[in-house]
# Entry
Amino acid sequence: MKSIPSPGPFGVEFFDVDVNQMSDVELDGVATAQNNHGVVFIRDQNLDCEQHIAFAQRWGKIVTNRFFERVEEHPQIAVVRKEPKHRTVVGEIWHTDHSYDAEPARGSILYAREVPSAGGDTLFANMYMAYDALSRGLKHTLDHLSAVHSSAHVFSTEAVQIHEHDDDRFHGGEQAIQRSIHPVVIKHPISGRKALYVNPDFTTHFEGWTEQESRPLLKYLYQHSTQDEFVTRFHWSPGTIAFWDNRAVMHKAINDYPNERRLMHRITLAGCALQGV
# Structure
């Protein structure tokens, strides 16, 4: 197994390895890189659904997504797709997967099955780096705050149809009732590093603040966290895996390939309750 730094300020790409035959030592190498960087990429894989699931299970328990369509006979795998008819793409707002859950997702393993002829990249923002770059005074303020995260305004039937009429990629809108409170700054359960834990898609407001009061500071944190020096842009090729830690990075999909198809399969790993600093 070989590796190189990803283009950008963080991330590691692995190649010359088959995840179906990855040794425990190689697995530990990937884990260390992800712990340090927040996201890793593994090129040139050839996985069927059973192999994708088997690889994910080496990392932990799989969480079945409530709202995405699922692969037939393999409900552990969520389908992330854009057809030529779709105007929007899944995940085009900066977000952290499942932050609305009481025990947010530990990680996500996204596998590229079909990619457009050009475009369709994914951006990752490093929330360790974003926190480290804040002033001492703002860190002190944020260290004592919690924020509310919700699924209702994103995945309810009404919310989905606002973005794209008759969108066939989502289901279970009546289940969009999750509302959880997490520290704004978390201590990562593995690395022990401090990271910002708010995101534009699911965070609604600070606990004890109104949404109106929360909006200016949240907007600043989002703009700060997504500056170029904290963001890696990843270009997909068929057969690539991106494996990221939701406690350390945000991500978003770029919507720049009109009239083309993009098909990805995603498995989400269970996490734990998050602790503040």
Remarks:
- The chain has a mean pLDDT of 96.
- The radius of gyration is 18 Å.
- The first strand starts at residue 2 and ends at 5.
- Helices lie at 24-37, 49-57, 127-132, 136-142, 152-155, 157-163, 211-225.
